[in-house]
Design brief:
The protein has 173 residues and is mostly helical. The protein is elongated, with a radius of gyration of 20 Å. The protein has helices spanning 9-15, 26-53, 61-81, 97-131, 144-147, 149-170. Residues 1-15 have low confidence and may be disordered. Helix content is 68%, strand content 0%. Helix 2 (26-53) runs antiparallel to helix 3 (61-81), helix 3 runs parallel beside helix 6 (149-170) and helix 4 (97-131) runs antiparallel to helix 6 (149-170).
Length: 173
Amino acid sequence: MSDSRTEPPAAESIRGEAPHARVPISIERSLGALAMGLICLISFANVVVRYATDVSFAFTEEFSVFLMVIMTFVGASLAFATNENIRIVFLLDRLPPRARLTCEVLAALASFFMFALIVWYGGELTWDEYRFEQTSPGLGYPTWIYTIWLPILGFVILLRILGRLIATIRGRA
């Protein structure tokens, strides 16, 4: 028995490019894949060294956590660019088109506000860590080199949300 349903438009954009995006989503894909590959490489090397020499590279956890944050934010940016962010559409799909558009715009504005808070407070956290010269416990690196990516990638997500919002309002989403 064949399935007569068609794929949602967002699924098409995952294989190619987001139709409304001026900045290619391949950037997020590449950065996410690089971060995931580095996490795998660090973890594999740590396991091999631990079992071969009974020495642990526990300090590499700093890099793994940092790369996990990068991967999460890059993935969120990709999700907003391709309109694949998590949402519950059970009621939304049953609304008339005008009400559906209103809900989508409100959801985008709420997401924008949340990531604006992340940018603001992430920037304050980074500034405090820089100002007070806080260092990481494992390697002794300045912690601001890790936390500066919160406001930077949060701002990238804000741009992707804004692009999605404009495309939704124009009807190209």
